[in-house]
């Protein structure tokens, strides 16, 4: 366990834990922290976590594993005095949310899976992750990642064309990532198992959300997850790519409010 998990927090309502994409940080959730608590501050208590090695959380010395990140979230809930929370992750954050659903199902009151997938990596994807991990460590720089991922495929085609300031914001965030954390996370993601069986057993309301232009985890991945979740709403956001929460925060937040309402209605 890391001793200190850095969290940005806002609001006082239903606990909502947000887990960021790779290789970003809790800073990607700016509009969710600003808007989801609601005008009177009572709709949601948003906790945006920095996963190990990113933002303000130290990497530590453990071997790469998404299960550790899920255990970190459970520990964070313990420390915050939160028994159950709506747990939401985007892409890598979604993988961690699924690991949490496997290891700590009793901590979930709802599940948000955005621009992510429940299948394990192919051999080719694993090899590519190892290539990136080795290169950033050897060069002690994340330049390669910036060149290969920003703006595409992280942003959708519409955002690349029409949202230049978003590209700047994203580039700055990726440049902030440390080579050690990038390599660690790549190796952790490479060894994750498939989670469709876990999703089939999720007993709480779920939202699966995806950008129509997501080139990393396309709508077909979202459909596969929605097909097995027992209580699910699937939302496809038009003109949006992989980073839906940043590319179209209003539509993203509207869909999340719907999930929060379902969670409150369920008990
Ligand atoms: C992410 O956005 O977190 C990554 O694209 C996830 C991945 O590399 O599988």
TrEMBL record:
Kindly indicate whether the keyword Hydrolase belongs to this entry. yes
Q: Where is the AB hydrolase-1 domain?
A: 15-249
Q: Which InterPro entries match?
A: AB_hydrolase_1 (IPR000073), AB_hydrolase_fold (IPR029058), AB_hydrolase_sf (IPR050266), Epox_hydrolase-like (IPR000639)
Name of the protein: Alpha/beta fold hydrolase
Pfam families assigned: Abhydrolase_1 (PF00561)
Q: Which UniProt keywords apply?
A: Hydrolase
- Molecular function in Gene Ontology: hydrolase activity
The organism's taxonomic lineage, starting at the top: Bacteria, Bacillati, Actinomycetota, Actinomycetes, Kitasatosporales
């Amino acid at each position: 366990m890391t001793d200190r998990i850095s969290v940005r927090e806002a609001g006082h309502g239903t606990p909502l834990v947000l887990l960021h994409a790779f290789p970003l940080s809790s800073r990607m959730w700016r509009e969710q922290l600003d808007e989801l608590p609601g005008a009177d501050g009572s709709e949601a208590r948003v906790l945006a976590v920095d996963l190990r090695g990113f933002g303000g959380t130290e990497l530590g010395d453990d071997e790469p594993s998404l299960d550790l990140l899920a255990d970190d979230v459970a520990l964070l809930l313990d420390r915050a005095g939160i028994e159950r929370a709506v747990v939401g992750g985007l892409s890598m954050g979604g993988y961690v949310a699924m690991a949490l659903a496997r290891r700590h199902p009793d901590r979930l009151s709802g599940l948000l899976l955005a621009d992510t997938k429940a299948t394990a990596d192919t051999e080719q994807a694993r090899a590519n992750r190892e290539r990136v991990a080795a290169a950033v460590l050897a060069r002690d720089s994340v330049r390669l990642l910036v060149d290969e991922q920003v703006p595409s495929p992280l942003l959708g085609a519409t955002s690349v064309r029409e949202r230049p300031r978003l590209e700047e914001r994203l580039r700055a965030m990726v440049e902030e990532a440390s080579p050690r954390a990038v390599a660690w996370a790549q190796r952790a993601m490479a060894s994750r198992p498939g989670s469709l069986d876990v999703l089939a057993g999720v007993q709480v309301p779920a939202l699966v959300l995806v950008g129509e232009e997501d080139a990393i985890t396309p709508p077909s991945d979202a459909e596969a997850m929605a097909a097995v979740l027992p209580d699910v709403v699937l939302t496809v956001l038009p003109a949006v790519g992989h980073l839906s929460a940043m590319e179209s925060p209003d539509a993203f937040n509207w869909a999340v409010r719907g999930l929060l309402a379902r969670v409150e209605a369920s008990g």
